[in-house]
């Protein structure tokens, strides 16, 4: 039973490790585009390998190679003949799942093709150059549906670690909360459930704000939410400088900005904190291949972004009277929480 429980605890990190490290991304994308996961789900979650090879015309590939790829993708191989969905693949790769991220993976594959010959530079966390920005524009142009795909995928990832992170943030006495770059509101929805009387302001880019509003409308305590569709650079046009917040959240957003812009955002947030208010910054760990690649994906999504360092974050915050400390490092989600309070 314990082993079964551990198997079911497998999360997005393991899946993405398989995608990036073990299996070629193009094979994962191909399996999604061909409907492999939905086909197996429609058959009750188990199929014969021979049926899959026939249905998807993969006979020309060596049998052992195909079997190995299936295992890497999150399929259980029984007696060398039967493929079965695992909790990982059923959750993330079957379209009927609310956590489906297949479109996100296909997008990543398209970007990988566009960046052919440039990807290694990004893997080293260098700032994208003009050539790479051009490649991204050529790959997607202004397709707003891609913003929706990315927002939904990041929301699914955020829900994986939100409770784990929020356990380290004191929300019991929060009266006003601001979430900058709120995505689809996964973090603040939990806060509203824990503190139903809190006033919550969520700010997101106009292209995502309507998606956020639709999501907020489904929250139990939706009446306490205020959704602002704007770039954070225009925050003064929407939030009075005299308005103060007990908690401000910057989750997975700083790496999407140029270094100087990220510093400016921290300063703005620090100045909007009430005395003894909390600033919570959630970012990606480095030092692991999974997080390096996931970070790279985010660089690819947002043109011209940069990677502000931990010492820079702490220095800027301290200059504004907020003393940040590493409050938590999650080994399962690959996220780090920096938490600090505004001096009274």
Automatic annotation (TrEMBL):
Record carries keyword Transferase: yes
A single GO BP: methylation
A Gene Ontology molecular function term of the record: O-methyltransferase activity
Tagged with keyword Lyase: no
Domain of life: Bacteria
InterPro entries per record: COMT-like, COMT_C, SAM-dependent_MTases_sf
SUPFAM superfamilies attached to this UniProt entry: S-adenosyl-L-methionine-dependent methyltransferases (SSF53335)
Alphabetical UniProt keywords: Methyltransferase, S-adenosyl-L-methionine, Transferase
Segments forming domain O-methyltransferase C-terminal: 143-319
Protein name: Methyltransferase domain-containing protein
Organism name: Phocaeicola sartorii
